[in-house]
Amino acid sequence: MINLLKVENLYVGYYEDINILQGLSLEAEKQQITAVLGPNGVGKSTLLKSISGFLDPNSGDIKYKDNSITGIKPFKAITRGIVYLPQQLTLFQRMTVKENLQLGAWTIRRDKEIINQRISDNFERFPILEEKQNTSVGNLSGGQQRMVDLGRALMSAPEMLLVDEPTAGLAPNLAQSMYDMLTRLTDDGITILLVDQNIRKAIEISDYIYAVELGKNKTQGSREEFADVKEVIKDWL
Amino acid sequence: MQLIERLAKSNYTNPGLALLIVLAFVPLFVSDQYILQLLISALMFGTLAMAFDFTVGFINVVNFSFAAFWGIGGYTSALLAAKLGVTPWLGIFAGFLISALLGLFVGLLTLRLHGIFAAVMAWFTGLALMSVITNWTSLTRGPLGLMSPMFFDTMDRQPYFYVILVMAAFSLVVLLAIANSKVGLFFRAIGQDEDAAKASGVNPVHYRVLNFTVSTAIAGLIGGFYAHFMGILTPSVMETSQTIEIMALAYVGGRGSVWGSLIAAMIFIPVLTYLQPLMELRLIIYGVVLIAVMIFYPGGISALYRSFFVVKKSD
Amino acid sequence: MISGPTLASLLVAAIVRAGLYTLSATGLSLIFGVMNVPNFAHGELYMIGAYIAVFTFSGLSLPPLVAILFAGIGGFVIGAIIEKSVFYPLRKRSERRKIWIMNTFLVTVGLSLLLKNLIQVIAGTKYRGIDSYWQGSLRITGISVSIDRLVGVAIAIIVVIIFWLFLQKTTMGKAIRAVAQNEVGAKVVGINLDTIHTLTFALSAMLASVAGASLLSLNPAYPTMGLMPLFSSWFVVILVGLGNIAAVPVGALIISLIETFAAYGFGSGWQRLFSLALIILILLFKPRGLFGSDVKGIWER
Questions:
Q1: What ipTM is given for this predicted complex?
Q2: Full-prediction pTM beyond 0.90?
């Protein structure tokens, strides 16, 4: 089990004196899905933002492959192989599916061949996107946009994906496909740090889970240890 | 030190009023016309800046047309005096009223909008007003300038000094009185968080328009003074660049303090005028200072003052 | 009624003016869309181009096209410097605050003052004009049009088209549009926002500078010359909708037609009042512009 990501004693907030995360620590193993669960507002998105460089921590350390990446700039995080997929879609609405995918490969933009290869890969994963490749993203359905979002994130061949509520607003069957896709991605070698409100599903596909409350670690354990989901959910209702 | 701290805490004692009181005695010792001229200029712009701050520092609207109201006040008073023989002493009140009315009108037009939007709308409205004054040459002689009777027959600056001093004091007291009243509280509430203010039952548009009107009214009053002090008016007083000079003073003085603008004017106008050889640099300095303050010290002079008199909250 | 030839020459004048307005308004629109900066100093960028052209053409006797090219390059470089020294620090300091737009506007006001008076110190207040870049005139449908103006418009149109292609077809252009459409998304794919901002402002300055340089025979260079292009650019941009680059040529044509005919009918002093009146009406009743504003949330701040 290779430890890819190590977060130590993280204090993060939007203002210097107000910390949402208060001393959070966690580890993510390679090629596994690690879930971070907790009630709304507890700081899960904030965690992902600070790992990917979108928000600088006030104190604490973040290590990726034993190198400190605390306070890194977002575009540097991507070159290291960390891609953040925010909760709200961040697609370029007035550009086509293909253009969005192409921009996903911004960090390797000079390598046209690889880009085209990866676009093909994405079309294999999401056949509907091939059909709609010249359609403006704004004209796609919610589910299709999520596919573009994920596809775009994969264009830079990330090592680790930070996924924030990937199924918010999706119909159950689409949500299931998304979860299946995430599992497939780890089989392909990608490590996933997952934040989700859907506790049951998240536990189902994760290898290791961290429960966070009030910005601090509450409990953690493997999927088996979280088997009795009812207990966990009861805590948060 | 305790007494000073208590005074500093009070909303009514402030460097602005203190300054005005001190200034009242100045002509007893100083008869140099040049210095008096400088002080008159500083007081004039200081009052204008205070009125400007009343809007930007409270309801958070940058009135880009401010100078236009100053001009309108001046032209109203000047025209009444020149064409109808009305005495300047009444004329300035006419200027005051007309500017207030125009301010009301413009305010109603622009203040339903927000932020940059309102600023731009005000800006263009001011431009429109200036355009009218410039082109209505049959009435105003446009860029050639309108001659306007002076307040006094004497060339001595001293009486003018006292007139503007009274106007400045009047404005400061009135503005502070409003600022410290419930109305002032509403202004600030609207400026900070309009939705919260609305939720408390305050009608934002009404109060914004009220604030705007008060501000422009004072601008008009000073405009009247300007007309009968300078003796000639040109449309260039209504230019955006004039608003900018006033705005710079308000910002450097510290938004929302009212008196800060007066102090800023007292410092900047004499300093920049004394640097006569650097005349062209005057506006460069304004520009740099404005940028620097916006980026590095948005609190301005009033924040500086407050930091010296840190009042500890009682437990 | 206006006679045929007069109408034709008015139209020609309007088209020339429209070309100019398109060029400089496009720059302003770009800034709005990408950086959310309401640039009050836009006219000064135009002025910089005019002065560079004057110095290279009159001073160094370089050929007209070279002078205009220099103006464009100079504008680009100066724009980049301005962005890095003024907007970048402001952005860093405003990261955790929401008063970015108003503050930036005011900073650009200070910038405008600075540039205007800096030029005055460097070059004096004298009007510096030229007779013309190119001699001669053509007869088009019976009216005489100076080559100068024709080339000026042609340059404006060509530059705008090239710029448009740049935005639509090149990767860098797409990156700029990406930042305008979704800033977070741009960060997510690894675009360096600082670089894009600098590039965008530099491009905007370049467009304005080329505009300032190309019609030097019509509009001589003097320190406060930026006022007119400032107003007209703002008018056009508000008319069509902030950030809506595609619609700028249409807006430019509308404004210049109004101004040209108003000047003819009422005298040149009154023409601004007509555009002002139109814009005020737009702000009151159709604030997002005739064709819709691309900039999300700018009006709410």
A1: 0.89
A2: no
